[in-house]
Amino acid sequence: MSLRSRCSRICSNAIHRPSIYFNASQTPSKVNPVWQTCRSVASTPSAEKALFPGALNSEFTNTLEFLRPSNKKSIPTYRVVDQYGGVINKEMGVETEDEEALVLYRNMVCLSIMDLLMFEAQRQGRLSFYMVSAGEEGIAVGSASVLNPADVVFCQYRETGVYMQRGFTLDEFMNQLFSNSQDAGRGRNMPVHYGSKKLNIHTVSSTLATQIPHAAGAAYAIKLQNMQNPEIEPRIVVCYFGEGAASEGDFHAALNIAATRQVPAVFICRNNGYAISTPTSDQYRGDGIASRGAGYGIPTLRVDGNDIFAVRRATREARKLALENGGQPVLMEMMAYRVGHHSTSDDSFAYRQKIEVEDWKRRDNPITRLRKWLEGRQLWDEDKERELRSRTRKEILAAFDRAEKLKKPAIRHAFGDVWEDLTEEQRMHVEELRDILRRYPKEYDVDQHEGGVESLDELLAAKSTK
């Protein structure tokens, strides 16, 4: 038997065997993929394809020709409706019920109004920081609308629509923005860094791109859980990030380990054209972020982020794909344009022309496109628009007013959630802080905090749980 035919038989057997066997009484065992099975078999003189471990099945050639990406066609961008709200493939439609589309539209409008109001509130000095989602509402709301509630989500900082679509309330948004006593994060994080254990969304981290490797690791854990609990509906991890974050090393490390471990994860890149003040032309020379997916052996798709129906269909199919054969990562690049400033700390007109922004606002955005589709089906009109915006504005301002009046979290929370019980060192710190606050009451206004300085007394008096 020749080496080549022997390798062919080995590889054939490997392909038809399931990649992972599982027995509840045993540790899951992994079957090596094809390229690992054949790694020790060398090419024969008559072989037409390479059998190198790092490039299996690469055809031999005697033509010296460099692969030039600039000579290749760009990856296409998937869409379902055009910018006028017209359905491109009428036989397939939009796969969205009318009532569901109305809910999506109301959520996107609510998000845009909240962004405008909170941006102005920051300018008035009532909030310390805020980030808007203008131009990217369809990506967040659309993708979140087709996920399973049990799916675990990792966000960056422009996914407010994901939280809103999954059930995060206006009061919860406002409590976090004000870091008041009802903030689930106990005032420990800066505004717009939401999190919700109830909604299976990890808390946003300020450090750019750290959520991407976290998502890869969580997806590997979920893969094992899916295997060990076959009676429970399998779930996936979804990770959001911007194209600027894809320039970080964390992105590459995460996609590589997600691909080699074959984890059930969907990575969604919001390519909005700018990483703060850096345009994409200064970030990379390749064909966007989608072109990197093939390099890691990951199924990849580029989507029109202004088309919420395309976002929904793509995310739904990506979720199915991520669960195939025990799990595999999927990369989606959602194309959009960041209409607003990067944050309230940024003036984008210092690095781009205002006419460029106004052109995008007028020409195409996810809210306008969905509204055109709704109007085309006689589901929406100017009166309904006016009533929705008026009512939504009142609801947001009411939640804003409630949150602004609440006190700050109790000072004791500065020491909690570290150890189950206070350590001796922590106790010394609490006593020292209490002493300073009582000796210098004019310098430290603790009345704005729930319980005042007495909350430290309660902490010191609390009995050990041991």
Shape: globular
Our estimate of the beta-strand percent is 5-15%
Q: Measured on Cα atoms, how large is the radius of gyration?
A: 26 Å
CATH fold label of the largest domain: Rossmann fold
Can you tell me the CATH superfamily of the largest domain? Thiamin diphosphate (ThDP)-binding fold, Pyr/PP domains
Q: Could you give a short description of this structure?
A:
With 466 residues, this protein is α/β, with parallel strands linked by helices. It has helices spanning 3-16, 34-37, 98-123, 137-144, 160-166, 170-178, 211-228, 249-261, 290-295, 308-322, 354-363, 366-376, 382-405, 424-439, 454-461; strands spanning 20-21, 29-30, 152-154, 201-202, 237-242, 265-271, 274-275, 278-279, 300-304, 330-335.
